[in-house]
Prior knowledge:
By secondary structure, the protein is an alpha/beta fold. 39% of the residues lie in helices and 15% in strands. The strands form 3 sheets. It has a 7-stranded parallel sheet with strand order 10-9-8-7-6-5-11. The protein has a 4-stranded parallel sheet with strand order 2-1-3-4. Strand 7 (173-177), helix 8 and strand 8 form a beta-alpha-beta unit. Mean pLDDT is 89; it is low at 458-478.
Amino acid sequence: MATPSKILFVTGRLAENSLRKTLESAGICKKFETQIQVLPISVAALMTPEWIAKHIQIDDTIGRVILPGYCHGDLATIQRMTSAAIEIGPKDVRFLPEYLGAKRAIQATLDAFEIEIIAEINHAPRQSLLEVISQAKRFAASGADVIDLGCEVDQNWVAVGDYVKALRDLGLRVSIDSLKPQEIMTATKAGAELVLSVNSSNIQFAGDFGVEVVLIPDDPSNWQRMEDHIDQLEALKVPFRVDPIIEPIGFGFGTSLHRYFQCRERWPELPMMMGIGNLTEMSEVDSAGINFLLLAVCQEFQIHSVLTTEVINWARSCVQECDIARRLVHLAISERIPPKHIDSRLVMLRDARIADDRGMVELSELASKIKDWNLRIFADHGEVHVLGSGHHLHGTDVFDLFDQLSRLNSKHLSPSHAFYLGYEMCKATIALQLGKQYSQDDALNWGFLTVTEKNRHRLSRKDERSKEMSTRPEPEET
């Protein structure tokens, strides 16, 4: 027998027209054998699997059943009725073409990476032990492999050993960021495994540290001096990695980037590190893009460790940005594919994609079909649209929209519902300004910084009873 291949799309009355238009305009009906089943409910988002199971009809020709994206609950009640695959589709019907195209594709995994993240706690001696522990735990949870304790230039940190031991007791790996030999030795005896850094001022003590060190240049342009220091560390049998030092923009950034390339060419097998915090802390732009590009450079040049920090506010999520970036660039470079349409967690200001506008005609048609005062909010054509009870209000000034609503519908605008509407219209306005996707009752997408919103009702208390009725076997129109 042939395998059933027909796709059944399930929807409600209000979304039927939009679903049909999407399937036709995207040519889905030509690529797949499709069927639409409109269940006896107006708002598809109010469906539950239990309710759907009482109304849906699935014949033997159906291979896949795609339910509305807002359908929540255990799908087993539907699955027991059929051998077809039961799926929850996208929340916005306009993303169906992409959903159907990606559903069968092999999903890339981001488990692998090669770059180690060293996260520096700046001015650690100025902070209490509890403050350092708290920051170290946060860095580790964000993806840091090593916690770096940044020391002061003009004083010896007597308590450094206690701080290192406290972090080691938590199972954290620790490095010490200092040039002072005594401070370094105290830290390494307590369990620090890496020294940042050595140069001509302290290289003679490197053999006494007993751990790996990071070699930095006295003069970045003096390669002979760097080569002498490399020979010295090799003679002492001290494990080391080299950091040619990345300079901030305005202070020789391009030239310093070229130094890393030269260093890799000169010493192909030498372990290297890049202190990327010099860029993120000194560039007043969102840090995610900078981190991604620098991690890509590191992956290509086989620089297997980076030093970052989160002091200035625009760089407050650098560690997690680097964790995502190192996985993306590893996949892109090892598989020779562009780092696109793989993981959009670093797209925060705007969205990776937004659906095409519905158009005024479609929104007006939808408004004409709505018989209740449960308001639907959209962000389309550069305006906020409010639909309810046959009315279609739209504009760029949400205060004006609310005044219009008040005149039309004052008896339904309880304080809590008015607050809810204001909150949603504010989100819609932000989405329009930044080029983000707005979907009523969903959090705006801020990449990995997104905080999921609680399931807030879009109805007034009085109308909650209508919502409850909509889940009964024979619901009235909501």
